[in-house]
Amino acid sequence: MSEKTVNMTDITEIIFANKNKDYGAYVLRTLYNKYVTLSTIIGTVVFVLALTGPMIVKSLRPKEAVVKKKVITLDYTQLSEPPSLDKAAPPPTLDVPPPLKSTIAFLPPVVKPDEQVSNDVVPTVEDLKKVDPGAKTQEGQEGGVDYSLIETQDKVVEEPKKEEAQVFTYVEEMPTFPGGEDACIAFINHGIQYPEIAKRAGVEGKVFIQFVVRTDGKVTDVTVGKGIGAGCDEEAVRVVKSMPNWKPGRQNGHPVNVRISVPIVYKLQ
């Protein structure tokens, strides 16, 4: 035994002299050096395994086969020239069958500068009686196409319908007659003519006329909302159509189309 072990043992014996050595402290102190050595060995082994474990596992795994990819090197000279963005693609060529009859070039006259005028001979009326007019002069061939018999159908292009402007019933600023409501009543009373048929039949009542005041103030779309007949409805429509331009209505500060209903009273004196 070493001197340190002897000293440790002697110290333990001295400490536990005349004491109960069966108590656990004596046993633990006696086995202290053994436990320290054992724990040191175990810790060292665990540390070494933690460092070398991944390398050991990697070495034990089967090696994967390396797949080599073939790389093809393409020389730029093998590529075709890209199309130019500035040049327009040429129109496709069409194989036009030859005409059955001979044709002579007869194009509509075009005003050109003097240096661009060609010396082509303009065909006369006598020439056009013998051959057909065409885009160019060429001889007819047997088995060709008689273009004079081909019927062409003009394609009718429909114009897009204009969207009708929205018509309001109530807006922030309603349309007004020049001079106000009193001026409107005076205009109607002055212009209305009591129909003779209505006078003889004793017809009285109110005719409600509806119309639209456009954004420019014009009165349009005059219709009868509720009538009494005997010619009174037609007379009321005539008077309303003869009205001058109104001050247009406004919504959010912009002029808009507004529909208005005006009552016209027929009353015999």
Rg, please?
A: 57 Å
Could you give the distance between the termini? 152 Å
Q: Give the SSE string.
A: HHHEHEEHHEEHEE
Given helix and strand content, the structural type is alpha/beta
Low-confidence stretches: none
Number of strands: 7
Tally of alpha and pi helices? 7
Proportion of helical residues: 25-40%
What number is the mean pLDDT?
A: 76
| Main β sheet profile | 5 strands, mixed
Strand content: 15-25%
Q: What would you call the shape?
A: flat
Q: Can you describe what's shown?
A:
- This protein is of the alpha/beta class and 269 residues long.
- It has seven helices and seven strands, in the order αααβαββααββαββ.
- It has helices at residues 3-15, 24-30, 32-60, 125-130, 181-191, 196-201, 232-241; strands spanning 103-105, 132-134, 167-168, 205-213, 219-226, 249-251, 254-266.
- Strands 3, 4, 5, 6 and 7 form a five-stranded mixed sheet that branches.
- Strand 6 and strand 7 form a beta hairpin.
- 7% of the residues are buried.
- The mean pLDDT is 76.
Which terms would index this structure?
alpha/beta, single chain, 269 residues, five-stranded mixed sheet, two-stranded parallel ribbon, 7 helices
What layout of secondary structure does this protein have?
Layout: H1 3-15, H2 24-30, H3 32-60, E1 103-105, H4 125-130, E2 132-134, E3 167-168, H5 181-191, H6 196-201, E4 205-213, E5 219-226, H7 232-241, E6 249-251, E7 254-266
Parallel strand pairs: 1-2, 3-7
Antiparallel strand pairs: 4-5, 4-7, 6-7
